[in-house]
From TrEMBL:
It comes from Oceanobacillus indicireducens. Residues 1-18 form the signal peptide. It is a lipid-anchor. GO terms for cellular component: membrane. SUPFAM superfamilies: Periplasmic binding protein-like II. Belongs to the nlpA lipoprotein family. This is Lipoprotein. A lipid is attached at C20 (S-diacylglycerol cysteine). Keywords: Lipoprotein, Membrane, Palmitate, Signal. Pfam families: Lipoprotein_9 (PF03180).
Amino acid sequence: MKKTLLTAILASVLILFAACGGGSDEGEGLLEDGKLVVGVTAGPHEEVLEKVKELAEEEDLTIEIVSFSDYVMPNVSLSEGELDINSFQTEPFFDHMNEERGLDLVKVADTITFPMGIYSEKVTDIADLEDGASIGLPSDPTNSGRALLLFEQAGLITLEEGLGVNATVNDIAENEHNYEFIELDSAQIPRQLGEVDIAAINSNFAMEAGLVPGEDSIFIEQDSTFVNLIAVRKENEDDPAVQQFIDIYQSDEVEQFVEETYGGSIIPGW
């Protein structure tokens, strides 16, 4: 009698466990809820993802897009499980966030490249910049270093050697024209452009503000290696849904969409 009762209890537990998904492959993975939740920043990243979403529907893959206005929350939200994937950042920024915040995120693919540009409402040529001019640049570490490399590329300053994207305003070796460097929130720089003489602006934020990088910038990044990427939590890097998403994103259809829509202001990076 006791053995029969124990057997019945164990059977009930196993049925309940199976119903909840434990020990079964069915329903597991990122598509357990029937969709992929993908985080992007507003602007071109979101526009490209809308095209990806459209193509995914043809493959019976449902994508929910979550748009952010900053560079921090898409990684935090991914780490906390609110997103399945994000697509918005360069690898140097991604590495910095992973280390600084202790996130367990991994890169799984490349996406598009946004050349950073220098913009101004006061001058139309870098050569017209006066001594002591104010220069705006992003305040987050990797984009700040990227902007400083851009200023060096434009002949405005010289940086200490070997620092690359890790350079800060304190690493400016030569500033013979005594330019004043003002660090600002990346997303806000287009709105504050009139308050400085020139500023470095990430192309996604520039385009969101109605600027055309290839036409409106007075200097643009040459041979950019800052390709954006797709990131997931490490536990999901081999999920079949992730590979399906990558295949759609890196398809000929998306490449054509990027080339036709942005006319060289944004470049397919895969």
